[in-house]
Design a protein that fits this description.
Layout lengths: L4 E6 L2 E4 L3 H16 L4 E5 L15 E2 L12 H11 L6 H20 L20 E2 L5 H13 L4 E3 L1 E8 L7 E8 L4 E6 L2 E4 L29 H8 L4 E2 L8 E3 L7 H5 L5 E2 L6 H4 L18 H13 L5 E3 L1 H9 L4 H16 L3 H9 L9 E5 L13 E2 L25 E3 L11 H22 L8 H21 L15 H15 L8 E2 L1 H18 L7 H26 L10 E2 L7 H4 L1 E7 L6 E7 L6
Parallel strand pairs: 1-9, 2-3, 2-10, 3-6, 10-17, 18-19
Antiparallel strand pairs: 4-5, 7-8, 8-9, 11-16, 11-20, 12-15, 13-14, 14-15, 20-21
The structure holds ligand SFD and adenosine monophosphate.
Ligand SFD binds next to helix 1, strand 3, strand 4, strand 7 and helix 12.
């Protein structure tokens, strides 16, 4: 493998990640940058047209207020999110998303995204906050608009960003990023005055249910490897709520979503004995007051009730699609029945095709046969019913002083902004809210640059060190490949897939994975951390045969740093706030008196030491 050539890209705003948040950031930054004569660039490790969590499409937009028809107010949304996240969220950020999200959704429609419409021309509601779309091409439609806005010459695709750069004179100011091409022997150095970090959450950190031939079949996007967390953690940004992982109820093995079944089709889940755990285990909600008795029942508590049922040996659990559809079909015309049936299939075909394939291959007609559901492996993300991400400054006109230190969505590192899964403690933004948040962050990044007299300075020696590090797995492999007869088995190096599987085993066994029924405790976490430290040493011996392997190597580092941060947070929070997501056996109860607050962390980039802190929860409305 030849040494790579280097291309230096000079810009003002660099958007890392061209997913939903990155498209929002590109679209908005392009507009404001033009006003100020600035250059905005977006970089994605894949092709934006089909990158990230929305690659396959979606069948609903889960965050839409409907303010123009007076359906909901931002305050209503804040109250909903507050309860679903078991009391703690950055309500200033949630409010900010709510007041801005509708206009982004309207733009999606203008750009050609087809919506389900009522005869009066209104969006069809799946639930109070969700609207239905024919969304197989959601991502190409949004990406096309973002790409047109920022300009073809400012788009770098198939470039994996592995490091952020800091200002030579100010260790707390961002100065750009470094990445490598996944197609050519090339390293890119992006010099920037501000960076918007929008490169998705973290999946495959825990051992998934499907291993071996099914490896890779999970709910959230396999392409989301935790870059957004690793980049910001390594840059010394303060993180929040990294313990607040997500576990989902999903159709078994195909990971089809359940929202439409619950909310639109009014379906229920029953166990193998025909019992509804939400009824038989209703009393359990009393243990999680005040959140347990507010409707809708928070996502983790719904999981928790099901998990109790699973552990009591009551599985398999079934989504009673048969009962729900038969009820909906009763008395309807053949035409209407066909329409309902096609909506049921489209829900999967628009966003999790494999679930539809599974129905077909298991001979399941959802109107006749119920489908198994179960709980997923955990994911680290910030845009669903969860809260992982950076601790960011909130909007000036809404945020209390504890949450406001500069530009909206700027992290604690100057010039470093975050959006989508990258922003913590403000869940339920989903695809539309992530796009809206990207727009907010992009606009702020331009404001920040306009206010800065001096550009940051790059440390050339630092860049050389990073470049050598990036390429190391390729050189290490080349050096040792002859010492065994098989390229993938060698005493001198570790292939990225082996490393990934080792990480997943560790996380499953010690850090509350499905194999441990999501249970952990202090000693398990300490032992897990010891093993993770050893694992990190071994990652210095990663080997890569080609650029694809190199990408996989750096993705393992993303997941490892995300995992380490998660462990620190779970250890620090001495309570169980989100049963059904994870349980701390040392502290099995909710403790509002001591822990109705955020857990924040900062890893010192120089020493690798973690500093943990509590931050106050301040409501935005009653
Ligand atoms: O119901 C690098 N989501 C849903 N949202 C909805 O609004 N409605 C739904 O119906 C949704 N459902 C759903 C959803 C996701 C998935 C996978 C399924 C079903 C099966 C959630 C949204 O998709 C999610 O909230 C947003 O996409 C989050 O946006 P963002 O921008 O934070 O993440 P992204 O879109 O995945 O984009 C990340 C981008 O970064 C790139 N990238 N680029 C350069 N260098 C690196 N190192 C990089 N690492 C990553 C990626 O390529 C990508 O472009 S339901 O089931 O919940
Ligand atoms: P899902 O398909 O599970 O990702 O959910 C889609 C949307 O519906 C999200 O906004 C969920 O929070 C919401 N949702 C899913 N199931 C329920 C439920 N049983 N009660 C209330 N909201 C739900």
């Amino acid at each position: 493998m030849q040494r790579p050539e280097t291309e230096v890209v000079d810009c003002d705003v660099l958007v890392v990640g061209g997913g939903m948040a990155g498209c929002g950031a590109s679209y908005e930054t392009a507009y404001w940058a033009k006003q100020h004569g600035l250059k905005a660039v977006v970089v994605d490790k894949a092709a934006m047209e089909r990158s990230g969590a929305v690659a396959m499409g979606l069948s609903a937009i889960n965050c839409y207020m409907g303010m123009k028809h007076g359906e909901n107010t931002p305050e209503d949304f804040v109250r909903y999110v507050r309860n679903d996240l078991m009391g703690i969220s950055r309500e200033d950020l949630v409010y900010d998303i709510a007041r801005h999200v509708d206009s982004s959704v309207h733009m999606f429609e203008e750009w050609g995204l087809p919506f389900f419409k009522t005869p009066e021309g209104r969006y069809v509601r799946e639930g109070r906050w969700q609207v239905m779309i024919h969304g197989e091409s959601y991502k190409p439609i949004v990406a096309e608009a973002a790409k047109a806005a920022i300009g073809e010459e400012n788009i770098y695709q198939r470039v994996f960003v592995s490091h952020l750069l800091k200002d030579k004179r100010d260790a707390n100011r961002v100065a750009g990023a470094v990445g490598f091409s996944t197609r050519d022997n090339k390293i890119y150095v992006f010099k920037a005055r501000a960076v918007v970090c929008a490169c998705g959450g973290a999946t495959n950190v825990w051992r998934p249910h499907a291993v071996g031939e099914g490896l890779g079949r999970i709910w959230y996007s396999v392409f989301n490897t935790g870059s957004v967390y690793k980049l910001m953690i390594n840059a010394g940004a303060e993180m929040t709520s990294m313990e607040h992982r997500l576990v989902q109820t999903r159709f078994k093995d195909g990971y089809g979503p359940v929202g439409m079944w619950f909310l639109l089709f009014k379906s229920v889940i029953k166990n193998a004995f025909g019992e509804r755990y939400d009824e038989t285990r209703d009393d359990e909600l009393e243990n999680w007051l005040p959140y347990g008795r507010k409707m809708p029942v928070p996502t983790p508590l719904r999981n928790h009730q099901m998990l109790l049922d699973i552990k009591a040996g009551k599985g398999p659990h079934y989504m009673r699609t048969d009962e729900a559809l038969q009820k909906l079909y009763a008395g309807q015309t053949v035409e209407k029945i066909r329409q309902i049936e096609s909506e049921a299939w489209e829900d999967f075909l628009d966003m999790t095709m494999s679930q539809a394939l599974l129905w077909a291959s298991h001979n399941i007609d959802p109107a006749e046969t119920p489908s198994e559901v179960y709980l997923t492996e955990p994911y680290l993300m910030g845009s669903h019913a969860t809260g992982c991400g950076a601790w960011v400054s909130g909007p000036e006109d809404v945020s209390p002083k504890e949450y406001q230190w500069g530009y909206n969505r700027m992290t604690t590192v100057n010039g470093l902004f975050a959006a989508g899964d990258g922003v913590g403690a403000s869940g339920h933004k989903f695809s539309s809210g992530s796009f809206a948040e990207g727009r907010i962050a992009g606009k702020s990044a331009v404001d920040y640059i306009v206010d800065q007299a001096q550009a940051p300075q790059i440390d050339e020696a630092e860049i050389e060190g990073i470049k050598t590090g990036i390429w190391h797995p390729l050189e290490h492999f080349e050096k040792h490949r002859g010492s065994s007869t098989r390229e993938d088995l060698n005493p001198n190096y570790l292939m990225p897939k082996m490393a990934l599987i080792r990480l997943q085993k560790l996380m499953d066994e010690y850090v509350g994975g499905p194999g441990a029924y999501y249970m952990t405790n202090g000693p398990l976490l300490n032992r897990g951390m010891e093993l993770l430290d050893g694992f990190k040493e071994d990652l210095g011996n990663l080997g890569a045969r080609d650029l694809h392997d190199l990408l996989r190597c750096w993705e393992v580092w993303d997941r490892t740093m995300s995992a380490e941060c998660h462990i620190q947070h779970v250890k620090f929070r001495e309570e169980t706030r989100w049963p059904g997501y994870y349980y701390n056996a040392d502290h099995p109860e909710l403790d509002d008196e001591n822990w109705k607050c955020f857990v924040n962390s900062r890893r010192d980039p120089a020493t690798g030491e973690w500093e943990m802190s509590k931050k106050p929860y301040i409501p935005a409305c009653d």
